[in-house]
Design goal:
184 residues
């Protein structure tokens, strides 16, 4: 038995060493697991804190976005109110300008009608004047023609009288020349 116990002693020592070593490894493994669990818990805690921080950031950004939307809606409403007021004024201006334009057109049309009436009256007067002048010219021409014919008739009579006087004077001259010739 001594031999077995001697043989077993190194084995037992080895087994004990291995058991101690296994125990040490188990301890290290548990320490590593504890460290790892602690790291995981820290990571989870940090992740939770970061998630909470991100959620707080999201909430803050959402609030800020809602405020910005509300401001934008107020500005849009104010702009629309201003624009609708301006549009109302522009519509009133358009109506006033349209009425003024219609009045100007009516005035222009009336002035054109009045000018045409005056022109037609003037044309009628000018036609009357032209007809009267034509009649006067015709009368003057007829009177001149009569005067010319009368003048020609008088001229013919005077010419005939002058020719008679010339003939008579010629005869007297001839008689006087003959008498003179005979006296010589």
């Amino acid at each position: 038995m001594g031999k077995d116990s001697d043989d077993s002693s190194p084995l037992r020592l080895e087994i004990r060493d291995l058991q101690n070593h296994a125990s040490a490894l188990r301890g290290e493994l548990e320490a590593a697991r504890s460290a790892m669990d602690a790291a995981v818990q820290r990571a989870v805690a940090e992740g939770g804190a970061e998630a909470a921080q991100l959620q707080a950031t999201v909430v803050a950004l959402r609030d800020e976005l809602e405020c910005a939307r509300a401001d934008t809606q107020r500005q849009v409403a104010a702009t629309l109110a201003d624009a609708s007021g301006e549009i109302g004024q522009l519509k009133q201006t358009v109506v006033a300008l349209r009425e003024e334009l219609e009045k100007e057109r009516a005035d222009r049309d009336e002035r054109i009608r009045q000018t045409r009436r005056e022109s037609n009256d003037e044309i009628i007067q000018l036609r009357g004047t032209a007809a009267a002048l034509r009649g006067q010219i015709d009368n003057d021409l007829a009177t001149r023609a009569q005067a010319i014919q009368s003048g020609r008739a008088e001229d013919r009579a005077e010419i005939a009288e002058l020719q008679g006087t010339i003939h008579e004077l010629r005869q007297r001259l001839e008689t006087a020349m003959i008498a003179r010739q005979q006296d010589r």
